[in-house]
Amino acid sequence: MNAIKWGIIGCGDVTEKKSGPAFQNIEHSELVAVMRRDGEKAADYARRHNVPKWYDDADQLLNDPDVNAIYIATPPGSHEDYTLKALRLGKPVYVEKPMARNAKECDEMVRVSRETGTPLFVAYYRRCLPYFLKVKELIDEKVIGDIRLVNIALHWPPYPEEIGPDAQPRWRVDPEISGGGHFHDLASHQFDFLEFALGPITSAKGISRNQAGLYAADDVVMANFEFASGVVGSGSWCFTGSKRHRVDEAHLLGTEGKITFSFFEKFTIKVETQDDTQEYELPYPPHVQQPLVETIVAELRGEGTCPSKGESGAKANLILDWITE
Asked: What does the angle CA 270 – CA 276 – CA 281 come to, to the nearest 5 degrees?
């Protein structure tokens, strides 16, 4: 492929800044069509982002001859269906994370990608962000020696729309649509990056519960996991905690020190060794998915390789399934 002409299925909030503008900013890449079931919103998005075409039917976008690559930004419940349709049309797919609702759906997406020879990429963009590449560099250079232990803590209060007499929780906490709750949405990023930085996770188990009853999905999870290297990890996730005790921290304990970083809310990496303490400040770029999309465009043009593909995306879902089964 020379020019990558993208079509977006599901031009919702995530595409406004995180991803959508990236397709226009990258050389040899162009956003030519968008789709949303609400035609007025699709037309509004197209007008505001200078996109020439809009649709309210996904099949029409998929079959548009001017579109040669598909970005699927709908909730996970429709990822498998749209991905399989696009792959069978020979159009490379970039799908939002989590890749699907469960590992079984992901495996079918990977199978059809292999069967058709059509590339499949997943939006685990932390694999290309400078902040997380710095964490990986510190690990690879053994700044804190050999890694022994990983610990994750993500404790957030409920979202405003999830509490009160007029509560209207969003699709992310409807397992029929999302596959789980906030754990599936957020921990998928965490486990994908940990595998990228530390190698494959070979086992994981956990306890997941719905304690507060604010919605159908689990709101608290505890997990233990092990890497092929022998590194062991643990994590706790709570999405109905107190505002005052909101936490987003990950710790890597090594033989010669500790690295502390955040997956979502902070931009500082703290490195403590026996002799020194250093901090690195690496804010995210304006369009956080752009560095990853650049690698996708490069691969489709035969000029590089994208680090986030169907196989690795499916593994993140498998880990979630192990923990919450």
From this structure: 30
- Coil, helix or strand at residue 170: coil
Backbone angles phi, psi at 225, to 5 degrees: -150, 160
Our separate counts of H helices and E strands in the chain read 11, 14
- Count of the separate structural domains present in the chain: 2
Cβ distance 155 to 182 under 8 Å?
Answer: no
Helix (H, G, I), strand (E, B) or coil at 173: helix
9, 67 Cβ separation under 8 angstroms:
no
Tell me: do 15 and 100 sit in the same domain.
yes
Q: Which residue has the tokens 């590194």?
A: 231
What's the alpha-carbon Rg for the chain, to the nearest Å?
A: 20
Please tell me whether residues 275 and 150 are part of one structural domain: yes
pLDDT digits over 113-168, tens only?
Answer: 999 999 999 999 999 999 999 999 999 999 999 999 999 999 999 999 999 999 99
Q: Is residue 322 part of a domain?
A: no
Q: What is the dihedral of CA 172, 175, 178, 183, to 10 degrees?
A: 60
The contacts of residue 268 (CB under 8 Å, 6+ apart) are 261, 262, 279, 280, 281
Closest CA to 288 of 24, 98, 15, 36: 15
Dump pLDDT digits (tens) for 169-227: 999 999 999 999 999 999 999 999 999 999 999 999 999 999 999 999 999 999 999 99
Question: CA 187 to CA 98: how far, in whole Å?
Answer: 9
CATH number for the domain harbouring residue 74? 3.40.50.720
